[in-house]
Each structure stands twice: as structure tokens, then as C-alpha cells.
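Render (P)ppGpp synthetase in 3D.
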Amino acid sequence: MSTQTLQEIIKESSNPKLIKKAFEFAETAHQGQKRESGENYIIHPLKVAETLSKMKLDPQTVAAGFLHDVPDDTQKTFQDLEKEFGKEISFLVEGVSKLGKLRYPKNGILAPPIEQRKETPVDLRAENLRKMFFAMAEDLRVILIKLADRLHNMQTLNALPPQIQKRIALETLEIFAPIAERLGMGEMKGNLEDLAFPYLYPKEYQWLQNTVKEKYEERTKYLESVKPVLVEILKKEKIKPIDLHTRAKHYWSLYQKLLRYDMDLEKIYDLVALRIINKDVETCYKTLGIIHKYWKPLPGRIKDYIALPKPNGYRALHTTVFCLDGKITEFQIKTPQMHQEAEYGICAHWAKKERVDLKAGIEKFAWVSQLRDWQKEITKPKEFWEGLKIDFFKNRIFVFTPKGDVIDLPEGACPIDFAYAIHTEIGDHCAGAKINGKLSSLSQSLKNGDVVEIIIDTSKKPSRDWLELTKTSLARSHIKNWFKKESHPENLNRGIKLLDEEFKQIRGIRFQQVPQGKKEELLKTFPYKDLESLITAVGEGEISPNEILKNLFKEKEIFLQRPLSKKSAPRPESKTQGIFLAGQTGIQIRLAKCCLPQSGDEIAAYITQTRGASVHKANCKNLTNAQKKWPLKIIEASWKSPEKMIWQVSLKIKAQDRIGLFSDITSTISSLGINILSLEAESQPKNLPATINAEVEISGLEELDRVFRQLKQVKGIIDVRKV
């Protein structure tokens, strides 16, 4: 069975060698291990990889599915994975490992009575955990691997003790199923809910099974008799559907619907529906008209989700009619693409590698609609995944236009993001911004409640720097598209100029001075036929010069590691700065004195009225008591990952001398949380620019880039270089 499954996964993959290598590595690492069910442990990663393969995900994600438990459950480390499989796969596995540490508390949370879900379906603690789940996953593929992992864990849940079964089932129902729904993965959501249902509400599940089993069989048999009649009708009208099949409603979804209809099964018309898959949208609408021509539709039961998709992106035509023998029957009509999207959600776009055609005129976008709108601009799968750093799942801010319209943006967005969120033309010609009536720089981070007015200048064009300032993928894609429209020679020259500036700034050499053989190595990493195409892509904004630099030189080649001077002090970070609070930002954090939690302890936080969040050990008695009295004041918390290596870097800053220049440079660097070791001015003749030498502590190239960008915003600064 396992051999056959592996062969199918290998057959489906575009990189069979990687898949085989990942399986063999995992099999060796898990050798001799058994699951609670008694089966060999390797069966679990194999099932996870199989699910990811069926989602048509890239080979790296499927390989990470095989390897996702290796560092946590075997002697192998993340370093071993990176050595064998590279940074990308190691990063994905590490992300899954981090998410594995986020879970419902073992005690104190019970499944609410099922009837209550009709009135209060949202559990705030669960919502906080969902937010935290998304915030900690830096790559959407990490979440997809975790969903596949949870699916198989739920399928084998019967091997665990009852108390653990309930906790995992509740976690699945409250966290994982809603996450799948937000990603438009209808089949995954339905399966997770149905698997959790019997463990949380066994009596209700048993009642439903006993009540609807015969109904399911009866309806399925009836629809099988409708099929040939429908095929004949469509044939007369010269329509040949690609597929006709029945779809039974998931148990949990059915029970939720019964709660809304006073538990009357006769009012549920979509217990089993007939799906019609047509070649295109036009044929879908024709089929709808033909069905209504032959069978009378039920008033108010025609749903056009193609013209107006559901918030999670679901598209189809639904109609309920009085069918053969007058029986009320639901038909669902969609294209193959719509069917794939409904089954696999966001993964369908990865698999299809095609643009999504949205009807115009939808003004109020839900988050998935915004995501699909962005996908119109991005057709390369690699760019789609890399750009999707969970903009849509991190904390959101709401800002206003001068007319009072609300614009929804990710935290940290700037006025350029705002401008592109309104219209492409406004973004392309954005010359400045007023925030709350005051002129502000385009790099200013927006805050909740800000009123933003964009100053437009038709002669203004997007700047390459905007790609570094913007936070939304939609804005970045529009900026890149603008650069692409320019001619090839202009983009090639711009690419050379940008690379020269980057290399001079960091390495003190021009890009052309890098040995040809070393530059040719770049073509193994980036998908371009020659160096000219690669350099043009830099000019178009497809690739940042920083990415080229990082691929040519390791950080230890760029930053010469030196012992920190006596003047140096460790970058200040209190213990509380190393703590994540679920879905919360800007809250003062303190460690509870009653239990004094240390890094690595399981923790949770209690929100006080006046003193911010008090962080306790998860098993602290005071926290347990507070949880009983004020459950909504308890939120999830976790420790951040340890800091990276710190490098000592020398900078040379040239600027027009003025009063306050030193102060502005110091405050700009300090505002980024960077430690300044020294800051000294060279003596220069009055007619020459001032030269300032700075010694700072940097965690890597990305942080150094931020320093350069922010310093260049300071009035009077001409140039900033690493010495």
C-alpha cells in the first residue's frame, strides 16, 4: 500500500528525485518508530505528502510533508535538513514545527453545547489563536502542510485517550477548519469538521447518522435516475457537460443547517445535490436556463455565485427546482476551474498557473477577494508564493479616505499601499500624502483610524524605492508592472545601475567586477536563460539587487566578524520583547512574579485593565483561577525564536552639513532598534559635504538595507556606504 502511494506521488511530481530522496531520508530517520495506532511511523508523513501531492503543490512542499516530523521526533536536526535539502525545505519544516507548539490548552476549555453555536459561533480565544497561527507562519505553504498533517491525525484519532481526542477535535473544529475555509478549501474544511464532530458531540452525531442514512441513500438513488434524463435534455439543446456527479452534504455542515431550520430535515433541499461541470461560464448560464425551461424553479432559491462570489472565493450557479415526480432538487453548475477552486481553494491557482477572471464592480472585497484581485496581476507561481507572506492574515488596520470610505490594509502599510488600494492610476502618480491633514512622507507607517489624502502629480512616476517601502503585494505588483512596460534597453540599463549601486554600497565594487564564472552561477538559482535577461528582470523590479547580492556572497563574506569593542553593549531586548501575544500589538507586557516564566516555558497572558498583559506559566494557579472567572481576558502567548548573529558594521555617510544632522542620523538608526557603537565626523573644508563614520550592530543584509533606505530619507544625506 505504502509503496503504491509513494509511486503515485513520484509519478505526479515534476521533481521525482527530490520526492524519492525526501521519503528515504524520512524513512531512515523514523526507523523503528511506531504511532499510537501501532502502524509504522513513516505511514503518517507518507499520507501527509499524498494529500499535498493531490493538492498539486510544488515538489518542495511535498518533500517538506515527508520531512515535517523529522527534527521534532528523531535525532536529525534542522541543520541536517538544510544540508541535505537546502534552505527552502528546511524553512518550511521549521515553520510547521513552530506551528505545532500553538495549541488549545489541555485544561479549562470545553466544547460549548452544540445549540449555542447558532447564537455565538465565534470563540474569541479561538480567534486569537487563529490570528497567531497566521502571524507566525511566514509562508502559506507552511499552513497547507499543517492542514494536511492535521487531516491524517484526525483520521487516526481513535488510537488516543478520550481526553486528548476531545482537545484535538476541538482544536480542529475551532482553528484548522476555519483556516481551511478562509483559504477557500471547501473539501478540507468539510472533512476536518466531519472528523471532529463524533468526538465532540457523539450523541448528536449518532442521531444524525441514524436519521439521514436512509435519506442519503434514497436521494442518491433518485438523482441517479435524474442523470440520464438531464443528459438527454442537454443533448437536445446541444450541450455536452464534462461531468455529472452527486455531492452529499457534509455531516457537520448539515447539522448546522438543521439548527437554523428547527431540525426539520424536509426543509433541507441540498442534502444531496447534482453537480454539472461545463467547459466555460457561458455554457453554465445556458444550462441554468435549460433546467428552468424544463423544471420550475423554487422562488428565491437561484444563487449566482459567479457574478457575486462568496467571501471565501466560491463560484458556481445554484438553483433548486421541482424536478422529476415534483421532487425538490438542487443543481450546482460550475466550470472545471471553479470546481477545483471549491475543492482545493488557493491551491487550485498554484496548480492551474492561470489568471483568475473576476467580474468587475465588486466594491467591498473580503480578504480572499482581495487576494484573487492581486492574483490577476501575478501569473508566475514562484512570485505568487513568495509574495504571499501572509499579508492578508497579519493584524489589519483600517484607514479612511477624506470622503470617509474605509480602506483595509495590513499593519505597517504606507500611503503608497493606500494609493494603490484605491486605484492603479492614483498609485502610479502618487507624489505625496497628507495624514490627518498634515503633510507626511510616503514611507510613514499608517495607523488605525488615520485619514489619508493622496497628492497626485500626473508627471510623477513610480520609484524603484517604492518596492522596499510598500507592504501589500497588490501595490508591489502594480509597481513591477509599471517598470515592465518600459523598453528592454531602459530596463537593462536600469538593472545594471541598480546592481552597481547595491554592490558599491555593500561590497565597494561594481557588479561588472564580479568574476564572470561567479555571475554565471546565478542562472542556476534564477530561471533566466542568460545574464542579460536576469539583469533586465532586476531593472523591471522582478528581482531585487539585494537578492542577487545574497546569492553571490554569504553573509560571513559580506560582514567580517570582529570581536565587539568595549564600547559595545548588547542590543537591548528585555525578556518581554521576546514574547508573541495572539493577535495583539502595542500592549505593555510584564512577567508575572507569582510564577516567573522563563524562555521555553508554556505560557499564556492575562489582559489587565491598567497594566497591559501579565504573562504566566500555563500551569500557574493564579492563571487557572483567572481563567475560570474571566475567560475572555486570557489570550495565547509564545516565545519568539532566538536572535540571529549580530555583525559589527562600519558605515560612511556623506551629507550637506546642517544643524541637527547628527541628531537626525542618531534617531533614525535608533528608531530601527539598532545599536550604535560610535558616530564621528571627519573634518572637511567648508565647501565639501560632511562625512560621518558610524559603527553599528546589524543582524544581516535585510536589516542593513533598511538602515540604508531610512538614512537616505533624512534631509541632506547624499550617500550611505558600507566600508
